[in-house]
Amino acid sequence: MLDHSFCSSPWFHLRLTYNGDFEECRWFKKSQTTPVNVRNASLLEFYNSDRMRTLRTDLLSGASPTGCETCQYEDNFNKLSGRQRQLLKSGIRKDTFALSLRSSPHYQHFLHTWQNDGHADYAPVDLQIDLGNVCNSACIMCGPTASSRLHTEYRTKLHKINPALFADPITYQSWTEDPETLEKFIVELISIPNLKYIHFLGGETLFDPAFYSICERLIDAGVSQRIIVGTTTNGTIYDARIERLISQFKEFHLGISIESVTELNDYIRYPGKIAEILPNIDRFLALRDSAPLFVSLRITPNVFTASEIDLLFRYMLSRHVIAESCNILFDPPGLRIELMPDNVRQHTIDKLKTLIDEFGMVKNNHVNIRKNEIIDGVIADTVIDYYNFIKDYKLPDNTEELRYQLVSFIKTFELSRNNCILDYAPEYEQFLRHYGY
Amino acid sequence: MHPNMNNFSDITAIDTAGQLSIRLQLQFRGSTESLITLNGHVIRSDSVDLEINLFDPIKLSIDLLSFNEGTSGIEIQTLTVNGLEVLPKYQHLASKPTNYIDQLGIWTFKIPPPFYVWYHTTTGQGWIA
């Protein structure tokens, strides 16, 4: 049914990926069709490309398009999905879907598309721009296309140790390294009349010169005061240039990626040190008092970090900061939360239940979660979402195969890095030994 | 309310008449004389249900003609639209920020159409793309 599958995102949102290929959406699984690249197509050309028109037509027809699986999976658990968040940007509510869609300001644009073979008579308003893979981190759930450090490690070690799990990485040039392409794109960006939100991703954006140059150009062009800028950092560095940028935009949304407040984070988000990251988070949080800044933690819980997610939630409560979980981890498949050993899973459920009871948490179903005045309610939603997910998830059909793959996966990293998961998560020893650790 | 929305044609086929159900509950305290209208309909009881078009504005007006100072007035206990509370929750958006009318003159509360866009904005659901 339409209320279970429709998404308004393709009418106002696009993603530009690391190598310059456009994608339909920030949550969309990588398209298998012919790439359209920013080096030879403009953003607006892609906006009404065959791919986008097909996607819009499918969505209006009530289909569940290939590529939208992440949101479909999260919707099954009533977890706040990208689809729900994008629908809200069209004023469409889940609880009154038909009427709020019928009275959405975008209704006329949907109608136009329905009558014109997928064509949209609107323009992008919300963009995700992946700048490249320049990054000082090599997180184990990341890939070489998003981390230059991991790219090097794949090439020099991981692929040689375990070519089955670690493919020889493709070397590509980030689109931002091509001055002509960057200039052309910035000019187009400035010309988009109704642009409201840009989310920049790296790599590590605070390292990337392109991040600063695009922001500065938006400021110089006099359009920054109508634009909300968001970006995600790994928290390993605090660059003072960010302080000036924050005040120049309508709002600035800063996501800080951490998975745990213990040293387990050091293992997952290698080689960052949580002891250095937490003080940086406090510095960023302090900026909230004097600037239009919204800070959130960006979490992607996995088979290990889910076991101490309660500690992360307690940290969030103490710092008055929400977490945004962009999606439930699917890839690498061996790191999926659903592979947790039964005893750890049950212990995690118990700890989350204790937390929920201790703070009297109730579900608020907030969708627009970036508001400082509802932080406690948003945290409660997140805690309850994860409690329900960990309690209710079904094991994947190939669980045994994936658990063996998990061990092979981490052993490869550990050979490269000379570290050991049991130093960080000793409660997994029996489980991991069983699968060949 | 709207089952079997299988594709966009089902949305376009919605008859927009009568899609907003307004429920108004009043309490008359003490002796008052007033003219109360909801979307032009004169209200004479303390409980009213009204159905309007999805794209109609909503206007509640209370003209208090006489009352006893300090002992009488009209309380708007609830105004809901399709079950969503509007008053007293958003009384600060009325011509006078109250849900208890005890002053002579006209008190009004207006919701510009469409209701769901107003509700989105008023409840702080963020920018619309």
On the 0 to 100 scale, the average pLDDT of chain A is: 95
Structural class of the secondary structure composition of chain B?
A: mainly beta
User: What's the total helix number of chain A?
Assistant: 18
Which structural class do you get from the secondary structure elements of chain A? alpha/beta
- Assign the CATH topology of chain B: Lipoxygenase-1
Q: Name the shape of chain B in a single word.
A: elongated
Quick overview:
The complex is a heterodimer of chains A (437) and B (129). Chain A has 437 residues and is of the alpha/beta class.
Secondary structure layout plus pairing:
The complex is a heterodimer of chains A (437) and B (129).
Chain A lengths: L1 H4 L7 E4 L5 E2 L19 H5 L2 H11 L8 H8 L5 H7 L8 H6 L4 H9 L10 E5 L17 H14 L17 H13 L5 E5 L7 H12 L7 E6 L7 H8 L2 E7 L6 H5 L5 H13 L6 E6 L10 H11 L2 E3 L17 H17 L16 H18 L6 H19 L11 H6 L3
Parallel strand pairs in A: 1-3, 3-4, 4-5, 5-6, 6-7, 7-8
Antiparallel strand pairs in A: 1-2
Helix pairs in contact in A: 8-17, 9-10, 15-16
Chain B lengths: L7 H5 L7 E10 L2 E7 L2 E3 L3 E6 L5 E10 L5 E9 L2 E4 L12 E2 L3 E7 L3 H8 L7
Antiparallel strand pairs in B: 1-4, 1-6, 2-3, 2-5, 5-9, 6-7, 6-8
